[in-house]
Every structure is written in structure tokens, then in C-alpha cells.
Amino acid sequence: MREDISLRGAGWPEGAIFTVGHSTLPIAQFIALLDTYGIRQLVDIRTIPASLHNPQFGGAALKASLAAARIGYMHMPALGGLRRPRKDSPNGGWRNKSFRGYADYMQTAEFAEALNRLVGLGREKRTAIMCAEAVPWRCHRSLVADALEVHGVPVIDILSEASARLHKLTPFARVEGTAITYPPEQPDLL
Questions:
Q1: What are phi and psi of 9, to 5 degrees?
Q2: Which pLDDT tens digit goes with each residue over 100-152?
Q3: Which CATH number covers residue 172?
Q4: Distance, first Cα to last Cα, the chain
Q5: Domain count of the chain?
Q6: What is the DSSP letter of 66?
Q7: Which domain holds residue 124?
Q8: Contact at 8 Å (CB) between 66 and 73?
Q9: How far is Cα 104 from Cα 88, in angstroms, rounded to an integer?
């Protein structure tokens, strides 16, 4: 499969999870975007399912709009962001404290349970995880995508109606089994 995908739904890997950011899109355009990729279930991974600037993406309004389009909605706060880093964080490769805190949270049983639930949903119907940020690499959903990849689940980042890409594991990630950390870069000793 190509890295950049511009076809409308052809050749998606079985059980893949998609990622999408709502940004400032009008709700009709957002639903059209989901339809382009055949999304039947949207999992909201915002900690708080609300938006002051884009009320169409508030939990109740979004759920109603999606229901009218026959797309399921589920808020999964256990995959939400806004996590604080541990003092002894093994994830110092992330300079951004929010990402480091989320990477620390990824080591918890709560995260593992939520991730397993998400994988199960993806097996039942075409599922996308959603947060607010337009681009995946500026959002904690990229870390969720890393965790899915490590668990053998293909991830497709939706960029627009005409463009999507297979998620690539964060380059400085370290994987042991299904555990993932983001250690700080080590200087060459030789």
C-alpha cells in the first residue's frame, strides 16, 4: 500500500483505525469528510467533548449531527489528553510537556484497557478517533496511533477529503513488545 493515499476508500487495511481532527470545519463538511472514508463510528478522544469556538463540535451537538448521518458517536475520555508528566518520566524525548505527560499515561492500565476497547470497535465497523487539532503530528492522537501500530493495528491519518496517509511510528519511539517509550536522544559516545 502506498504511504500517501488519495483514493476514496479503496484498499484500506482490515481493522484499520483512522484519525481525524475537526479543526474549524463546518459540521456538514466534517461529516462529508467522514463519509469520504466510510467512517461509521467516531470516537471522540478529547478529554472534554466541547469547543467554545466551534460549538458544532460540542458533545451533544456533534452526536446529534452524526446520528442524522448514521455515524455512531462515542466519547472515550480514557484516551483523552491533558495528562501531566511524571517526575521520573522515561519519555524525555518529548520536549512538549503535554506529549510527555500523555506518553507517561500510555504506560497505565487505564490506557491499555481503553486502547483494547478501541481496537475492538475498529474490528466491528470502520472507526476514526477524533480530536480538535487539524494535523495529527500536533495532537495526542499521534501517540494513540503509535500505540495502535505497536499492537498491530494499521492507522490511517485523514488529512483532507483528497488525502490520507498511513501513520508512521514516531522516529524516536522505542518499542519493547507492546510497550512504547520516547526516551531522550543519547549523545554518541564514540
A1: 95, -5
A2: 999 999 999 999 999 999 999 999 999 999 999 999 999 999 999 999 999 99
A3: 3.90.190
A4: 39
A5: 1
A6: H
A7: 23-181
A8: yes
A9: 9
Residues 6-62: pLDDT tens digits? 445 557 888 999 999 999 999 999 999 999 999 999 999 999 999 889 999 998 999
Cell numbers representing residue 181 in the block: 517509550
Strand 163-166 vs strand 155-160: parallel, antiparallel, or unpaired? antiparallel
53 assigned to some structural domain:
yes
- Helix (H, G, I), strand (E, B), or coil: what is residue 97? helix
Segment holding 181, helix H or strand E: strand 179-181
Residues 81, 103: Cα–Cα separation, whole Å: 10
Q: Grid coordinates 449531527 are at which residue? A: 65
Condensed to tens digits (0 to 9), the pLDDT of residues 71-92 reads: 999 999 999 999 999 999 999 9
Report d(CA 115, CA 64) in Å as an integer.
25
Instruction: Report the largest interatomic distance among the alpha carbons of the chain, rounded to a whole angstrom.
Output: 62
